[in-house]
Amino acid sequence: MPTTEAKIFNCTQSRELAEKIAENYGTKLGNVITSTYSDGEFQPSFEESVRGSRVFIIGSTHPGSDHLMEMLLMLDAAKRASARHITAVMPYFGWARQDRKDKPRVPIAAKMIASILETAGATRIITMDLHADQIQGFFEKPVDHLYASTVFLPYLRSLNLDNLTVASPDMGGSKRAYAYSKALESDVVICYKQRAKANVISHMELIGNVEGKNVVLVDDMVDTAGTLTKAADLMMERGAKSVRAICTHPVLSGEAYDRIEKSKLQELIVTDSIPLRQKSKKIKVVSCAELFADVMKRVQDNKSISSKFIM
């Protein structure tokens, strides 16, 4: 039996998702207000007692940096208000692409963010589809790393696609693609790409046969959509019957929406880990709220959540 009352709060950027999570959890969001000074500085404030409680703070840390800063301030506020357990629920863990030194004199931002979150007061982290699995090891506190496949696989199966083939848009996502292909009992193809610089692809080649196939591209996030749309167009040129994509986190910056509309992608399926900046007929959102609510309940009740780690 739980020994402390659980309270759920949200950062402003994740208000809509937090409301869905709280509804699935069976409670209402806690009362928190954010005051903003004229120069842009802001201060979150819990308007109810959290002393001795288990506190869940929901907020994705996608750009800009204010989203991360708000999470840190709320963690610190909960710690100073004597919350017993403080869980940072981060559907999207930002800065995760900087998980190693890929050239001299650059930071490992993901490790730095992990350390800052713990210093601010997080005693547990719940997140989904990290850019790299090893980021879990950057934390000294428990990390519950969930897979969006829990919500994507039922949707894909409902499409009843014949000649299904799972594809990875780059070599780095091959492990994820193989996991989906195993669950869907399908073939796998891989795209090999070379970058001229960040977000700029100089060359792309396809490893595998997609002729006559219904292809599903799988990735953890979609940023500028350059890789995704280029891969989709290449596969259609190679004889694919259709190409759709599932990407957990819809960062969708720059010309992403325009690229998606003009591409040969039939559909882009994403979660609501990050709110969409605009609507698109090609983008379908599948909510991850029920997944997070279930895991949060299990954490509160000290129950196993191992079933949520299975692809």
Tell me about this structure.
This is ribose-phosphate diphosphokinase. GO terms for molecular function: ATP binding; kinase activity; magnesium ion binding; ribose phosphate diphosphokinase activity. This protein is α/β, with parallel strands linked by helices and 311 residues long. The chain folds into 2 domains: 6-146, Rossmann fold (3-Layer(aba) Sandwich); 149-287, Rossmann fold (3-Layer(aba) Sandwich), CATH 3.40.50. 29% of the residues lie in helices and 28% in strands. The protein has 8 helices and 14 strands. It has helices at 15-25, 65-80, 109-120, 149-158, 174-184, 226-237, 256-262, 289-300, and strands at 6-10, 32-36, 42-46, 54-58, 85-90, 124-128, 143-146, 164-168, 187-197, 200-207, 214-222, 242-250, 267-271, 283-286. Helix 1 packs across helix 8 (289-300) and helix 2 runs parallel beside helix 3.
Shape, per Cα inertia axes = globular
Strand order of the largest sheet: 10-9-8-11-12-13-14
**Euclidean distance between termini CA atoms:** 29 Å
SSE-based structural type: alpha/beta
Topology-level CATH name of the largest domain: Rossmann fold
Biggest sheet statistics = 7 strands, mixed
Instruction: Please give the CATH architecture of the largest domain.
Output: 3-Layer(aba) Sandwich
Overall mean pLDDT stands at 93
Highest CATH level, the class of the largest domain: Alpha Beta
Output the keywords.
311 residues; alpha/beta; Rossmann fold; 2 domains; 7-stranded mixed sheet; 5-stranded parallel sheet; 8 helices; 14 strands; globular
